[in-house]
Structures are given as C-alpha cells and as structure tokens.
Task: structure prediction
Amino acid sequence: MAPEEIASSERASAASAEIVGRAHESVVQVRARGRGDGAGVIWDQKGLVLTNHHVLAGRRSASKTSVVLLDGREFDAEVVKRGRDLDLALLRVETGSALPAAPVGDSDALRVGQLVYAIGHPWGRVGAVTAGVVSGLGVVGGPRERARYVQSDVSLAPGNSGGPLLNARGEVVGINSMIFGRLALSIPSNAASAWFANGQRPRLGVGILLVELPISLRGADATMPETGLMIAALQAGGPAERVGLLVGDVLLGTGGETPTDPQSLLDAIAGGSVRLRVMRGGKIYFVDVGLKASGRAA
Result:
C-alpha cells in the first residue's frame, strides 16, 4: 500500500473512532433489580430514553428500573409506554440537566453493503463497539402496515438489546433488537421515530421476516428448510398472540408447505385455519391458528 493510501486509511480510522466516541455519550445501560439487562438510547435531551420492550419484560414497578449514564450516574426510570409489536419501550429519567440526545438518521437511506456500528453492553461489557455491514433490508408487517427491518452482520449478544445501530456519520439508523445465528436485526430509526412521535402502537398484526436457517440446524434435521419466517412483530391481543406465538419464533411452514416469502405466509393464514410448524429455541412445535376470525389479515 502506498504511503498516501496508508495516511488516508489512518485518517478514516481516526474519524470513525471520533464519531463512535461521541455516540457513546447517548448510550445508557438499562438496569432492573441492580442487574444490567440491556442498553438504551437518549432520544430526547429532556430525559427520554428508547430501548426494547423485551428488556423491560416483567418489570411492573418503575422503582425496579434504572438508567446508568456514561459518566456512571444512575437514575430511577419511569416507564412511559411500551410497544410489544415493534419491541420498543420509552423511559423517562429526571437528571436536573439536559442530556446528550443521539442524532437520528434516515433509515430509508440505508443500502446493502453500507458500514454500520453497534454500541451496547454485551455480557456486561459496558460500551462495547462492533462494526459490520448492512446485509439486508427486510420487510415486516401485514397488508395494511409494513415496516423495514435492518439486517446486518454486527456482532450482538445479551446486553446489546435496545442499543443503537449507527451509520458512518454516527447517526442512529436502528435500535438493535434481535439475534438469529449470526444475523443482527434492528428496528429502523424511521419506524422508531414515528412510534415515539405519535404515541400510537403500530398495527402490525403478525410481522414476518425471511431468515436463513443456520447450517447446523439443517444438518440435524433433514426436513428443515433452508429458510424460515421469523416473527418480528405481533399485534397485541391478536389471534397469533392468543395462541401463544412469540416474537422470535421461526415459522417453518403451513401444513406441508414451506413459505418462500412473508406475503405468501400472510396470504395462507388469512384464508382460514392452518397448522404452523414453529421453531422456538431450537425445538419444533406445531400450533393451530386461524386468523380469519380476526376480521382482517394478520
């Protein structure tokens, strides 16, 4: 590599380090009962923090939830609202001063191959940073409501949930939410901003995302398809939730059919009762569900 190319690479690396360093100021740790459960993003300087709904799952009392800032100060957090369908939750902390809100980018402008960073607290390692590229832009939601999911190969682990996915300018373009094999799934910043702004939980019904199943799973079961449809959103109180389906479940087919795209599964379940083959935690279940009774497609 020529000297000028080396110098250019070093400048780019230094610029990236500075951008990520500034972003750390807007990332918090969300704790419950004194234990770090996940991350959060300061969304408003008045003390509003965005995180994942599943980070707060089972927490009924605001006194059991707290937020730890970058400088180590810890504050009790009030749960303002929760949205199970998009897996988002909003917290409020009173610090007595303005907080460094994260700059929010346009997730619709993301392209496959674009460099992204994730900040979180995997396995309790506060403020850990990983880098990767956008590997796909999936679509979840039914015929009436659709939202994009950002797929990337950034490394995530327990403790990253609720933390930001950043573009090369240090703008939040996603809220890191799920891990599936080596695939990281993030809620697009535009969807999070809309949820934050209007105070309404999006009516997504059953949101489906096409994912590739790990080779290890396919090798252990000859009937396992190459792809499955992950539930990335659920309509609260809807038929799918009532029969026990959960966000993170992977649908492997309906009856003897293996769906090839999200819409084909939505069309199948909208037509009447079906038996779904579901993978949860590496185990296979069969669930009978009929969404036609809901009066609308999932």
Summary: The first helix runs from residue 3 to 23. The chain has three domains: 3-93, 107-198, 206-294.
